[in-house]
Design brief:
Blueprint: H1 2-13, E1 33-37, H2 48-61, E2 67-71, H3 79-88, E3 93-97, H4 102-111, E4 116-120, E5 131-136, H5 138-152, E6 157-162, H6 168-184, E7 189-194, H7 207-219, E8 224-228, H8 230-242, E9 246-250, H9 254-258, E10 265-271, H10 273-285, E11 293-295, E12 297-299, H11 308-322
Parallel strand pairs: 1-2, 1-3, 3-4, 4-5, 5-11, 6-7, 6-8, 8-9, 9-10
Antiparallel strand pairs: 10-12
Length: 335
């Protein structure tokens, strides 16, 4: 009876286990199985979940993996058991996404030493031989956004809206933006706003603050708005679109996610999760050393109003950041 109840509970808690009627035996040495456990945003998030799954699908199509599956987590309380589900099935590589799964991924690496765990956007203070954290440099993403903003600005003023600077990742986004805009135009006016005095219960979900603050930046002359910080940042992007002011997103393909309410989003600066998950799989299958990785960044599809050369120039800039030919000079932690 208890066993039946467990499976009923699992079926309710897991909304998105990819279908596979007869899965291969993942415990066999010649069968490589890879899985994804998402956060509660689901597989169609226009961001890291969707891009990571696309990478796993490409890996299977290219015969890097024999079996791939995913689980969409309903709630944070599901994370641990969703990860364990794949580990107990003998999956070789289990990918988890977003910092919210960091602790559960580290714990799973201790519990299941025969599986390799890949944590997307999960910086780890501790290391494990079967844990590969992949991080994407927020300062470089912000720098690329700032450089783009300076190139397309007509007023000579640009704005950045970020969640609290008390979170190092958010601080790196906006300070990277400041550095990137100044790199292109040292004389440009740069307006940077952090939600430092807001309600802690509205962390990442303070859309009203993002909307109002973007309008403040626009009234002060900014004709390009960059925003980062979940729904808080999306509020700023919506304000820019309503004011017919260009906007640049982060964290996900904001133009796709916001649809009509993000009509002025030029592009979004993202981590290349699809590329990274395949690269890690190649390394694992080749028997190479498992270690933390600094992932490559890229851009979402550009707004069709802009010439293709602008995207080419931005990709060249991103490559120079990746090769350290250009440095943001933004430290990892806020001073």
């Amino acid at each position: 009876m208890l066993r039946f109840a467990y499976f009923v509970f699992l079926a309710v808690a897991i909304t998105g286990l990819s279908a596979c009627a007869q899965s291969p035996d993942c415990f066999q040495e010649d069968v490589f199985c890879a899985a994804l456990v998402t956060d509660s945003q689901g597989i169609q998030d226009h961001g890291i979940n969707q891009d990571t799954w696309a990478g796993l699908e490409e890996a299977k199509a290219n015969q890097l993996a024999d079996q791939i599956e995913y689980i969409e987590s309903v709630d944070a309380r599901d994370y641990e058991k969703n990860i364990a589900y794949f580990a107990e099935q003998g999956f070789d590589m289990i990918v988890t996404t977003h910092p919210t799964l960091r602790d559960e991924t580290l714990h799973a690496a201790d519990l299941f030493p025969d599986s390799v765990f890949v944590g997307m956007s999960q910086p780890q203070a501790e290391s494990r031989p079967n844990l590969i954290p992949i991080t994407f440099a927020e300062d470089q993403m912000g720098f690329a956004a700032g450089a783009l903003a300076a190139q397309i600005s007509q007023t000579g003023a640009v704005g950045a809206i970020c969640e609290t600077s008390g979170m190092d990742a958010m601080w790196r986004y906006c300070e990277g933006f400041r550095a990137g805009a100044a790199y292109i135009n040292p004389e440009i006016k740069i307006l940077v706003f952090y939600r430092d005095n807001g309600d802690s219960e509205k962390l990442f979900i303070d859309e009203a603050w993002g909307f109002a603050t973007a309008n403040t930046a626009i009234r002060r002359g900014a004709d390009v708005i960059f925003a980062a910080g979940g729904v808080t940042g999306q509020g700023a992007l919506r304000a820019a679109s309503e004011a017919n002011v260009y906007a640049i997103g982060a964290e996900r393909d904001q133009a796709a996610d916001l649809a009509g309410s993000g009509s002025s989003v030029v592009t979004s600066i993202l981590g290349r999760a699809s590329f990274e998950v395949q690269e890690v799989m190649r390394l694992l299958r080749g028997g190479n050393v498992r270690e933390a990785r600094s992932g490559q960044i890229g851009v979402a599809q550009f707004n069709g109003k802009f010439h293709e050369s602008l995207q080419i120039d931005l990709n060249v800039l991103i490559l120079k950041l990746w090769n350290s030919e250009i440095k943001t000079d933004v430290p990892l932690e806020k001073p």
